[in-house]
Amino acid sequence: MSDATVAGPPTISTTIRVLLAVAAPRTRMHMRRLLAGTPGIDVVGHAQSAAQVIVLLQRGGINFVIADASDDPLLATEISTAARDCGSGLIVLAEADRPAPPGLAARAQIIPRPADLAGVLPQSPFQRAVLSALSQRATVGAHRPPVNNAVRPRRLLTGVPDVIAIGSSTGGPQALPLVLGPLHTRVRQPIVVTQHMPPAFTQLLAEHLQRSTSFPTVQASDGMPLMPGRIHIAPGGRHLLFARKGDSIVCVLDDGPPENFCKPAVDPMLRSIAELFGAKAVAVILTGMGHDGLAGCRSLVSVGGTVLAQDEATSVVWGMPGAVAQAGICDAVLPVNHLAEKIVAIAGGRP
Predict the structure, then answer these.
(1) Which of 149, 119, 116, 111 is nearest to 333 (CA)?
(2) Is the pTM here over 0.90, yes or no?
(3) Is 196 one of the annotated active-site residues of the chain?
């Protein structure tokens, strides 16, 4: 007859530095309680917004971020790219009735969490699942794009554009309302947006933008005509392209491979814009990691289009806008709260 044994928590041989991306104070308290006293685990702090998480990640030294999807479903999605680029692991806690979106499964370890953490005890299945995930230590790195402050914008081009295209990633959901809100009733051109997000979240983004800006906003569908005075959001999992159909320009949802590790990506959208609209297009590159949008902006500039970029000081991450600024292909590099006025001026033929 063999004796039954209960296994202890997974052994962690080196210190794992953990950041809690949890807004609810009670959830934070219980997560600290469950992690406290475990050798090799150091909860180094907490953050309540994606911007705070990204700043702390960029400072380096974070092995894992634990995010609670029940607090803010968009937060876990937005920080997933930053965690990957900084070499940090991401653990997402999700309640059974509010599961994490499928798109996160490839970027994070998803752990089901009880609705009430108050009754969760040490060595419970939930605690063991978290510790097991943490034992798969991430390699800590600090991805920081090279900074070149000697940006020399090109002379602004003249003429009234027919379309405004915006690309964004990390920090984009916060920056987009600041840019788009002041355009409502002042810009009649159709606006197209590619924000790096997985499926299920781009529809939420469209609804959020319509509420926060009063701008008619839709998630683009295949064959949807580009309409003046409307924002068209690229859906998660598809690149947003365009085609001419009679007298209209319509949206084309492309299921091609990811570009720059993203789908939707900004580059294919801008290439399609450049091909159809040429010099009658404006591209705006907002905060985000990496360099998605650079190749597309080069294509647009080669046919006479206009490129604007968010400046470093107001970007959560000056990767995407920094790449186009440093390439010397921008017509203007501006703080996020100044971009709208520049767009209004260009849209009215007053560069």
Answers:
(1) 149
(2) no
(3) yes
315 is known as an active-site residue: no
Catalytic residue (one of 70, 88, 168, 169): 169
Q: Of the ranges 80-94, 153-167, 226-240, 310-324, which one carries the lowest mean pLDDT score? A: 153-167
Q: Is 248 among the residues known to form the active site?
A: no
Q: Residue type for 50, please?
A: A
Backbone angles phi, psi at 185, to 5 degrees: 70, -5
| Max Cα-Cα span within the chain | 88
Say if residue 83's pLDDT is above 60.
Answer: yes
| CATH architecture of the domain formed by 16-134 | 3-Layer(aba) Sandwich (3.40)
Q: Where are the domains of the chain?
A: 16-134, 163-347
Contacts of 271 (CB under 8 A, 6+ apart): 295, 296, 299
Quote the DSSP letter at residue 9.
Answer: P
Query: Which residue, 283, 295, 296, 294, is CA-closest to 346?
Result: 283
Active-site residue among 292, 299, 315, 331? 292
Q: Kindly report, residue by residue over 141-162, the tens digit of the pLDDT.
A: 434 444 444 454 555 555 689 9
